[in-house]
Amino acid sequence: MVAPLKVGIAGLGTVGAEVVRLIEAQGNVLASRCGRGVRVAAVTARAKAKKRGLDLRGVVWAASPQALAADPDIDCFVELIGGAGEPALSAIETALKAGKSVVTANKALIARHGVRLAVLAERHGGALNFEAAVGAAIPIVKVLREGLAGTRINRVYGILNGTCNYILTRMEQERLSFAECLKDAQRLGYAEADPSFDVDGHDTAQKLAILASLAFGTKLAEKAVFVEGISSIMPEDLQAAEDLGYRVKLLGVALRTETGIEQRVHPTMVPRSSSIAQVMDVTNAVTVDGQGIAPITLIGPGAGGAATASAVVADIADVARGVRALPLGQPAARLVATQQAPMRRHEGGYYIRLMARDMPGTAAAIARRLAEQNISIESIVQRRRNGAGGTTPARGAPSMPVILITYATSEDAVRRAMQAVKRDRVIAGRAQLIRIEKN
Amino acid sequence: MVAPLKVGIAGLGTVGAEVVRLIEAQGNVLASRCGRGVRVAAVTARAKAKKRGLDLRGVVWAASPQALAADPDIDCFVELIGGAGEPALSAIETALKAGKSVVTANKALIARHGVRLAVLAERHGGALNFEAAVGAAIPIVKVLREGLAGTRINRVYGILNGTCNYILTRMEQERLSFAECLKDAQRLGYAEADPSFDVDGHDTAQKLAILASLAFGTKLAEKAVFVEGISSIMPEDLQAAEDLGYRVKLLGVALRTETGIEQRVHPTMVPRSSSIAQVMDVTNAVTVDGQGIAPITLIGPGAGGAATASAVVADIADVARGVRALPLGQPAARLVATQQAPMRRHEGGYYIRLMARDMPGTAAAIARRLAEQNISIESIVQRRRNGAGGTTPARGAPSMPVILITYATSEDAVRRAMQAVKRDRVIAGRAQLIRIEKN
Questions:
Q1: Which residues of chain B have pLDDT under 70?
Q2: Beta-strand pair A296-301/A283-290
Q3: Cβ of A172 under 8 Å from any chain B Cβ?
Q4: Is B26 close to A313, i.e. CB distance below 8 A?
Q5: Which pLDDT score, from 0 to 100, does residue A362 have?
Q6: B139 touches chain A (CB under 8 A)
Q7: pLDDT 10s digits, A144-185
Q8: Which of A197, A293, B333, B436 is the most exposed place for a label (fewest CB within 10 A)?
Q9: Domain A5-137+307-330 class, CATH top level
Q10: What ipTM did this prediction achieve?
Q11: A277-296 as b/e: b if 16+ CB within 10 A
Q12: CA–CA dist B94, B69 (Å, integer)
């Protein structure tokens, strides 16, 4: 019988404490499934005295993450401190250089330093597992890294941020504004006091960079991701989406194009019948389009202590089992650098919502400007509010919403057409543009 | 550089030919991802002369599956012959006994002989991979075997048969009968000339037995699965399901109960809002309920040459990478035998559709019989057809449909109540019962 895997856990917050509990509760199952036991041998956390309801008798308390990572009695270093920098980074480097395996749930750190850490892991023979960094309990890292080796992936996209999906779900179902739903999300603990990292799309961008690297062999680089958040989405967009057979989701999308891998995060219209459109509240989902096969979608809890801990323990189990997959699916030295996709060259369908001035010739003017850019219209909805006359803005003619869905075109063409419409003075305010992603 | 993995493929039908093509097309990617190349070194098939559009220059043609399995120049034997018995079984045994790894897409063979083959693989050190056997391109075998080691699984259920899901989808969407939709499925190649293996639930049962073994450590045994097919489902059941917020799917369900693992296949009412209810046509899906976390659902193509081949190649890639997971997730010797669940003890909600005689006292009589068995009613719909009088059967009073949804109760209680109602002569024909599965 092989000796048990000795695990050192840095960070005993919600996730860390749950990992200790799970390893205890699942002990026999883990031993049976991995061919060897798993034992928490040492831990470290900022406040040693804090009550956590954990039985840590027989567990060494290390002085620091660094000391824990260097401890020769540890086989596997589990980093649950968080943050893209210190002390997590140095501790992980120390562990990898010592040939230990590392398990982390830290998406920011992997997104920023993943390539460097993968090089260290490959050189010294340890594993570097980070299943919990994207989609928590959804095993998407393993699936992309190992499970789809037989599939040429053309696109990966998903709902990777529960906060945004919760807000969009509530806005749609209860016809509330972004601001109201954000406030509720904060009250429920789904959003931070400073929500910008989530609602502006940066959290999604970090996760997308990780998925793109695994799927397409790109170098992890958050700055290669075009990012647009959800704060400009209005209840009338969600209503219009419903009328037209779509739903609005904040998607992270990475796809193979003729000029390279395009990575982008933005509010997106997805067909209401797609699997991803059904994903509501804080749930996450990822869809993988493989060459010649129907899409594969994974749906599940994308956050939370128990869900994150379950992914961390699965990663530890792989270490115990002796699996040493390449951290980023292929040798880090072979990963290809990518640039941020120039969105003006992005091609796809567009949802356009305008407040058109209610006067003769408006529709014709808008149609002409789109035609000039060779943009074909799939559908158009023009509706007087409440069936009565349009609303009257402070100055000028009353206005009413016009909603257009275009066939595939370029973003450049759409932006030119909107500038021309604006110059024609047939619309009030700015046009709302939402990209459409077909399944 | 490690020498390439030499693969021998037995069976060059749609899947086998596609595997050869994929290994050729993905060659560089596979080498990069696995740390070694993958090469088709030898093949065998019944008709050597058949045109397949494959470039098999430099590939040895083996005289038989048996000869291929025994060939010392082969590292990995890929069985794509099909059938639960010979020649697939002996060839796999030969390969495993020689210490080779085996990849197969053969669910019938794994369901029937999986434990014996797993013992051989464990003893001789080869891998035994069968991702394609369940849900084709959906990586559910890997996810259950390796990816959810940190999760205590309470229930696994899914839509595992594309033929049945296609028929139910068409019946619902076009209000057609089972017989009509079956005919269409046959015309489109989704159903066999003898469709009983699919529509009676046996295909689902074999796949469920495999999932249950991976999730719960049960001995693979198709006969431990209670099976009921979809041929009794009527368009009016699908209509009633829609009215009541449900959808009917043929599910395979394996769950942990106080008395052991219950495995069953039957038409099931699932909440319309669940991920699994959205899965239409030939698509497959599996949901895993883990302790303390939200469900994880995987959706994707459950059949087809390209989807199956992609799973086979992913299995081959794991062999090349050196991953040797226990075939059934834990040592075969530790798997626990299970009995077929006595369905009379099954607990859950029920959908009941009756043709009630339209005469005074009918509703009271039915309600009394249910109350006698302590069955509580969640909803009841009683509708005169077309708003006019009921239909008049050959003899007796006119009848009209009554639909009941019960709260959780036991199947025994429901069956007793229905017998009593029948004796009361207040219904015509037999009652339609469909079990409800809550998410």
A1: 1, 384-397
A2: antiparallel
A3: no
A4: no
A5: 85
A6: yes
A7: 999 998 899 999 999 999 999 999 999 999 999 999 999 999
A8: B333
A9: alpha beta
A10: 0.94
A11: bbbbebbbbbbbbbebbbbb
A12: 6
For position A389, what pLDDT does the model report?
44
- In the CATH scheme, what is the code of domain A140-297? 3.30.360.10
Confidence (pLDDT) at A267: 98
Taking only residues 25 to 64 of chain A, the set having a beta carbon closer than 8 angstroms to any beta carbon of chain B reads: 25-26, 29-30, 32-35
Q: Please provide the DSSP assignment of A361-374 as one string.
A: THHHHHHHHHHHTT
pLDDT digits (tens, 9 = 90+) for B330-368: 999 999 999 888 888 899 999 999 999 888 888 888 999
CA distance A147 to B50: 32
Alpha helices in B44-105 (DSSP H): 65-70, 88-97
Spatial strand order in the sheet of A38-44:
A60-61, A38-44, A5-10, A76-79, A101-104, A128-129
Catalytic residues of B: 207
Q: Locate the chain A residue with the closest alpha carbon to B289.
A: A300
Q: Tell me, yes or no, if A330 comes closer than 8 A to chain B by beta carbon.
A: yes
H or E segment to which residue B435 belongs: strand B427-436
B333 CB within 8 Å of a chain A CB? no
User: Is B275's Cβ below 8 Å from some Cβ in A?
Assistant: yes
Whether the CB of B323 is below 8 Å from some CB of chain A: the reply is yes
List, for chain A, all residue ranges whose pLDDT scores fall below the cut of 50: 387-390, 392-394
Report in angstroms the alpha-carbon separations of B286 from A133, A330, B254, B279: 23, 29, 11, 10
Architecture of domain A344-436: 2-Layer Sandwich (3.30)
Closest approach of chain B CAs to the CA of A282, in angstroms? 10
Contact B325 A329 (CB under 8 A): no
pLDDT at A1: 64
Mutate: best of B28, B80, B173, B293, partner A, most A CBs <10 A: B293
Question: Is it true that B140-301 and B343-436 share their CATH fold?
Answer: no
Q: What is the CATH number of domain B5-137+307-332?
A: 3.40.50.720
As a whole number of angstroms, the distance between CA A174 and CA B99 comes to 61
Which of B33, B278, B310 has the CB atom closest to A278's CB atom?
Answer: B278
pTM for this one?
0.94
β A101-104/A128-129 pair status: parallel
Instruction: Give dist(CA B166, CA B302) in Å, integer.
Output: 12
Indicate which of B103, B165, B278, B286 best probes the interface with A, i.e. most A CBs within 10 Å of its own CB.
B278
Chain CA centroid to CA A250, Å? 9
Chain A CB contacts of B331 under 8 Å are 32
* CB-based contact, B218 to chain A, within 8 Å: no
Contact call for residues B369 and B419 (beta carbons, < 8 A): no
Domain ranges, ordered by start, for chain A: 5-137+307-330, 140-297, 344-436
Which residues of chain B have a CB within 8 Å of the CB of A315?
Answer: 150
Rounded to whole angstroms, the Cα distance separating B30 from B23 reads: 8
Q: Which of A220, A255, A439 is nearest to A332 (CA)?
A: A220
* CATH architecture of residue range(s) B343-436: 2-Layer Sandwich (3.30)
From the list B137, B142, B318, which residue is nearest A293 (CB)?
B137
Cβ pair B294:A138 closer than 8 A: no
First and final C-alpha spacing in chain A:
50
- Please check whether residue B196 is in contact with residue B325, taking contact to mean a CB–CB distance below 8 angstroms: no
pLDDT value of residue B337: 93
If you count residue pairs, one on A and one on B, with CB atoms under 8 Å apart, how many are there? Answer: 179
Report domain B140-301's class: alpha beta
By Cβ distance, the residue of A297, A300, A323 closest to B294 is: A300
User: What Rg, from alpha-carbon coordinates, does chain B have?
Assistant: 25
Q: A110 has which bridge partners? A: none
Tokens of B93: 């045994």
pLDDT, residue A359, reads 82
